[in-house]
Structures are given as structure tokens and as C-alpha cells.
Hints:
Its main location: membrane. It holds the Pfam family MscL. The protein has one domain: Non-ribosomal Peptide Synthetase Peptidyl Carrier Protein, Chain A, CATH 1.10.1200. About 65% of the residues lie in helices and about 10% in strands. It has helices at about 1-10, 10-45, 75-105, 120-130; strands at about 55-60, 60-65, 70, 75. A hairpin with a 5-residue loop joins strand 2 (about 60-65) and strand 3. Helix 2 (about 10-45) crosses helix 3 (about 75-105). The protein is elongated.
Amino acid sequence: MLKEFKEFAMKGNLIDIAVGFVMGAAFKEVVTAFTGGIVSPLIGMIFDSDFKALRYQLKEGTLNDAGEMVGDVFLEYGTFLTNVIDFIIVAFVMFLVVKGVNNMKKKEEPAPAAPAGPSEVELLIEIRDSLKK
């Protein structure tokens, strides 16, 4: 069983998938940093607020003994929009990567046509003639 698992784990496709997964996770971190550090502040300038801080209060909280507000419930649509922008950027880059890989692949040449042999009629005529002999 251990031998079968080792063979399975060492297959080329599984290693490729693992490398792709790690690269994707690292790329997502780059995109998140780009969105949080560059895109969100620019959009925040347009809306004159911190983009990630955009939220709608659904329920107001109460003050506890320490003077802190507890029990607030917010609909954080700014965070959601930031994540949607992250997704769009990642999806677009993955589209470009797949398109580039497809362009780099060799154009498959059509298989040469099979050599033309005798037709069915010709074969039947040949069989008939050989039976006549």
C-alpha cells in the first residue's frame, strides 16, 4: 500500500498540480497586496473614504461596563467588493497565462490522409474474378 501511494504521489501530473497550487497561493497574496495597497486607496479617493471600511450597520450595539461598544452587526460590502476585485484580477491573469501557454504550444499538424487503397467495388470485382478462375 505504501508503494502504491509513493507511485501515486510521484506522478508528474500530481507534482505539477501541487506546484501550480503553491504558485497560485503566492500569486493571490501579490494580488491581495496590490488590491489593498493600490486599488482600494484609489477607489477610496473616488468615494472619499477607506474602501475596506465601507459598511452598513444592521444592528446597533450597546455600551458595556468598560465603555466599549459590543453587539454591533455590520454588512461589510467594502471587503466584499475588494475580494471581487481580487478575483477579477486573478481570473484575468489566469486567462492571459492559459492563452499564452496555448499560443506557445506547437500547432498540431493534421494527420496525413491514409493512403488510398482499392474501393469496395474494386475488391468485390477482384474476389469475383479470382473465384471464376
